[in-house]
Amino acid sequence: MIRLILPLLLALAGSPAVAQTLAPLPDRLIIAHRGASAERPEHTRAAYELAIAQGADMIEPDLVMTRDGVLVARHENEIGETTDIASRPEFADRRRTAVIDGYPVTGWFTEDFTLAELRTLRARERLLALRPASAAFDGTDGILTFEEVMDLAAEASRRAGRTIGLAPELKHPAHFATLGLDMESALVTILVERGLTGADAPVLIQCFEVGPLERLAQRINTPRLQLIAAGGATADRPDQPYAAMLTDAGLAAVRAYVTAIGVESSLVLRRAADGSRAGPSDLVARAQAAGLRVIAWTFRPENAFLPTDLRRGDPAAPDFAAQAGDFEAWLADGWAAGLDGLFTDLVPPAVATLPR
């Protein structure tokens, strides 16, 4: 099994990079999906720091770009859901409708703002109906740049004496390219400056698109992961369905430019017609035989996201969907299926169920 990382370069804010050799990341990875996003607003400093304290091996920042070409951590380039921008009258005239990956989206977009303008905003919980406790932290944190997330992980690694990896996801790079914003080059520049371009770097670059990962494979050796959904096709190659990647021939082709695949959990853990568990598929075994690591997304604790037979509580209760189900059983199913890692919104149960 491939291991990521031996040396980790700690590039702390306001000081030169300092080399410190830490233990490699484990073979089976717990990746905090946007931080501890079941408990804090996603992509905030509080969410990342809590996830690290709880034992995450890696933290995941989704990356989008500002008008002045800075990579920032947000779920989407539309930020009406994740910030307080709707309450900011000075930005009201920037609300518009844009076509993103072929679909019309209305709201406020990072590409219309400079970093300085985005820094005036405050983060808020995206899934308010499901996570009111997290929403209590609305307004506490602002928007982080990718480099600030890197600094956070590096400082946490130094304090903890263990490697905290990063799993950045490039969001909509084809869209940003049409605006003259080159996400790939911006990412490469940062990784080169920090000495994180080797195959042992504590970084796992993700994307749903194919072209960016293929081009990155020609420029750097940093580990890469192809994200694969249960349906549809890639935004940059709409004639290439994700399903084609999951055949044996497709897996072999994907292996030419990435070291891992990140698949929707239903592709590994099947569900019956009634939504209950139906056992694992053969995808993990076939992908690993092709030389790929397999990481599944996204494991969330609330009933709304769990198989029907793992939901707990009174279905008639108004907050039934938001109540926690038997999350540990769902995580255990993932580990038992042979996953090399998983993305989770809640880290402690993933740590508790990880086979030792």
Give, in spatial order, the strands making up the sheet with the most strands.
9-4-3-17-16-13-12-11
Main structural class = alpha/beta
Main sheet characteristics: 8 strands, parallel
**Oligomeric state of shown chains:** single chain
How many separate helices? 12
Uncertain runs: 1-19
Overall description:
This protein has about 350 residues and is an alpha/beta fold. The protein has twelve helices and 17 strands. The protein has helices at about 45-55, 115-120, 130-135, 145-160, 175-180, 185-195, 210-220, 240-245, 250-255, 285-290, 325-335, 345-355, and strands at about 5-10, 20, 30-35, 60, 60-65, 70-75, 95-100, 105, 165, 170, 205, 225-230, 260-265, 270, 275-280, 295-300, 340-345. The strands form five sheets. An eight-stranded parallel sheet has the order 9-4-3-17-16-13-12-11. Strands 6-5-10 form a three-stranded mixed sheet. Helix 1 runs parallel beside helix 4 and helix 11 (about 325-335) crosses helix 12. The longest helix has 15 residues, at about 145-160. The protein is globular and about 50 Å long. It starts with 6 loop residues before the first strand and ends with a helix.
Summary tags:
single chain; 356 residues; alpha/beta; eight-stranded parallel sheet; three-stranded mixed sheet; 17 strands; 26% helix; disordered N terminus
